Amino acid sequence: MHEDLNWAIGGEAGDGIDSTGKIFARALSRAGRHVYTSKDFASRIRGGYTAYKVRTAVEQVGSVVDRLDVLIALTERTIDENLDELHEGSVIIYDGEQATMGDVEIPEGMIGLDVPLQRLAEDAGGSIMRNVVALGAACEVTAFPIENLDEALEKRFGDKGRAIVENNRDAARLGREYVRENYDHEFPYDLETTDEDYVLLNGDEAIGMGAIAAGCRFYAGYPITPATDIMEYLTGRIEQFGGAVVQAEDELAAINLALGAARAGARAMTGTSGPGIDLMSETFGLVATTETPLVIANVMRSGPSTGMPTKQGQEDLNAMLYGGHGEIPRFVLAPTSISECFHRTIEAFNLAEKYQLPVYLTADLSLAVTERTYDPGEFDMDDVEIERGKVVDESDVEEWLDEEGRFRAHAATEDGVSPRAFPGTADGAHMTTGLEHDELGRRTEDEDVRVEQVQKRRRKVETAREREDFEPREFGDPDADTLVLTWGSNEGAIREAMAQLESVSVRLLSVPYLFPRPDLTDAVEAAEDVLVVEANATGQFADLVEQDTLQRVQSVTKYTGVRFKADELAEAIRDAVAKTEVPQ
Amino acid sequence: MSSDAHFTDFKSDKQPTWCPGCGDFGTMNGMMKALAETGNRPDETFLVAGIGCSGKIGTYMHSYALHGVHGRALPVGTGVKLANPDLEVMVAGGDGDGYSIGVGHFIHAVRRNVDMTYVVMDNRIYGLTKGQASPTSRKDFETSTSPEGTNVPPVNPKALALSAGGTFIAQSFSSDSQRHTELVKQAIEHDGFGFVNVYSPCVTFNDVDTYDYFRDSIVDVEDIDHDPGSFDQAKDRILDSEKEHIGVLYRDEDSVPYGEREGIEGSMAEIPDGAPDGATDLVREFY
């Protein structure tokens, strides 16, 4: 019996692929199975190949693999696109009566189940339910109790009325019955269910949920793939907590709207993807030099320019670290898993306010659009801590006034962090400007004041290094000779690769803090092979590691637009170790 | 601070570096008077300015203020007002700031109708960069970057505002102190986006749109039969290129500001020490 099942539905964009995939993923999750999903989509609304893949197991899963056990193919092309991952015994569910299937030929050794999806859907009440008929068929193939699908259908269609839910349930059963009555294969699947209650969410949703948990009340953004889900998540939810989402006219407006809200005292956020951070970089400098706390989510995709909007990439690291003219302090946080998206978002708000600077929170496309199951305890709202930093109110504003009673909004303190008075605070009124300014926020070109303010802004970073815990996440064997370093979404695939490597023991450090970042020198020096894994062509993080540790590392890069897979990483690690070993 | 602030409370101790005779002095004085006379206090006022001569205003006035980047003042003001509706938000800019680099934001700010006041010091020239054509410069106006004349028609900001659904559109003249103050006051008191374009002459670089020119050309709509509630009349005045109308050109008495439409009530600055009540329901949604 296969406990680790890989399932997919593929067709043309507009065929309801995404929705169907989510229903199945939700059904599995509600049945107490772990789920990891991935999407393969083109940058267009209708037409073009698109697929939704679900990997499910009883244990937690953190990556995709090169294997497809059950495929619902709505078009002939779906089979061709997945040929590499299909294997002997793979089951392909298709509707041979459809023109999109042409003269479909099921590859040798595979099991083709020709199910009249559309016709059965019409029997159940409408051809639109053909995908649900296919889900019913998949339940039969995998011995998955169809009642779990019922719950997912309820969640998906509940607000459209009882009749719609019932019709869908009927459609699923027609699919199941058709396979039962017309085929007598012994399918090698028997999906075990458990009593566990899991939540299923993607990285963008985790960022949105983390933002609300952290007290974010204002979000401004301009729609852009793959960051839009954050805005869509917050819309309709943040209002319940007294907040607002504004769809801006462009990214320049978005970051300025968020800047205004932050200056008014709100925890504010904007979000975008690569091209958007270019547009925001003008105001990014203003945010930094006016020392305004702001969280900017950059959900990366492939670049440069408009690049490949729907494809994976980790190419904006340098842009986030160095973007913007002049020298400006900023923090860059990069969650390494979906649950980390939640936790690092909360941390980003705390860091932004404690150190009064912009914080980039960056997820990559794979993290953002992938859905994964977790124990709900991973998102414990009781654990959320809010730290607002050096906010002064009516009672202590006086100690920050100069001899003429003016508020020193940019006071050059020892730790580099100035007092912050929200507008409305009596005696706290002050102007601040993007021009170089003095302690009062007023323009200056005085050499001493300039140096004092530059040093003060830099000092915040040193203070943060002393006070905060910017540690990497560690996995594997702490004494292994092979060290793998990575950032972003690759952690899951690397951990899976490590499990495949029986003869090589590996230490993995996954780094969620890119600036300020942990000191990796000891770890790098202790290892024989150091591999840095990232989804870009030039090895931007590898460069940082070399610069920090003064050691050469091996860069493992991938810039096809497709996420890393465990198998290819296992091979890369094997190759690296083999090169180092002295030939016998 | 006393609840009845005097307009001098809105003055900072910095002396303006505007050229002697600049229209911006009068524009600013009227803004300060209007703020004080509408019962506002510096500690509860937020002023946003962009770049250029007009952008300097944040330094010369006393309130919470942000001097931002060129053309982006309106989104900043919008963010401030939505995050704390209790603040009086005023945005100041120039014709280059508002109608060139920032014209996209202008149209969208008008559409949103956030309850704030936008005062544009329109001198029909770029002053701080020493005399280039601005979007409101007349056609054929000769400047350092248009020695043969601009050869393009000017932007009509009041027409843009009217066509974008503006709910309060006024024009004033900075040297007519009383009338200018009165118009800014009405903009502040308007429930929505109060837009005041101010003829604010540049005495150094614009020798066409001078004080004398405006004095001779201005027609106050109060002196003629103008109903600001009439869209058609507003349109006729705004599109009349033969005259320089001042006064309230258009006012929509049914204006509902953005914050009210969106149900934004109190300040967003106050948040609990931990996750807000009900946050666990957000997790439950994912079951």
Automatic annotation (TrEMBL), chain A:
This is 2-oxoglutarate synthase subunit KorA. It is an enzyme of class 1 (oxidoreductase). Heterotetramer of the KorA, KorB, KorC and KorD subunits. It comes from the Archaea. Residues 13-177 form the Pyruvate/ketoisovalerate oxidoreductase catalytic domain. The keyword Oxidoreductase applies. The keyword Transmembrane helix does not apply. It catalyses: 2 oxidized [2Fe-2S]-[ferredoxin] + 2-oxoglutarate + CoA = succinyl-CoA + 2 reduced [2Fe-2S]-[ferredoxin] + CO2 + H(+). Residues 210-455 form the Pyruvate flavodoxin/ferredoxin oxidoreductase pyrimidine binding domain. GO terms for molecular function: 2-oxoglutarate synthase activity. Keywords: Oxidoreductase, Pyruvate. GO terms for biological process: organic acid metabolic process; response to oxidative stress; sulfur compound biosynthetic process.
UniProtKB/TrEMBL annotation, chain B:
Residues 51-198 form the Thiamine pyrophosphate enzyme TPP-binding domain. One of its GO terms (molecular function) is iron-sulfur cluster binding. It comes from the Archaea. Residues 131-155 are annotated as: Disordered. Its EC number is 1.2.7.1, 1.2.7.11, 1.2.7.3. Gene3D superfamilies: 3.40.50.970. The keyword Repeat does not apply. Residues 202-261 form the Pyruvate ferredoxin oxidoreductase beta subunit C-terminal domain. Keywords: Iron, Iron-sulfur, Magnesium, Metal-binding, Oxidoreductase, Pyruvate, Thiamine pyrophosphate. SUPFAM superfamilies: Thiamin diphosphate-binding fold (THDP-binding) (SSF52518). InterPro entries: 2-oxoacid:Fd_oxidoreductase, OFOB, PFO_beta_C, THDP-binding, TPP_enzyme_TPP-bd. Pfam families: PFO_beta_C, TPP_enzyme_C. Its cofactor is [4Fe-4S] cluster; Mg(2+); thiamine diphosphate. PANTHER family: 2-OXOGLUTARATE OXIDOREDUCTASE SUBUNIT KORB, 2-OXOGLUTARATE OXIDOREDUCTASE SUBUNIT KORB-RELATED. This is Pyruvate:ferredoxin oxidoreductase or related 2-oxoacid:ferredoxin oxidoreductase, beta subunit. The gene is porB3.
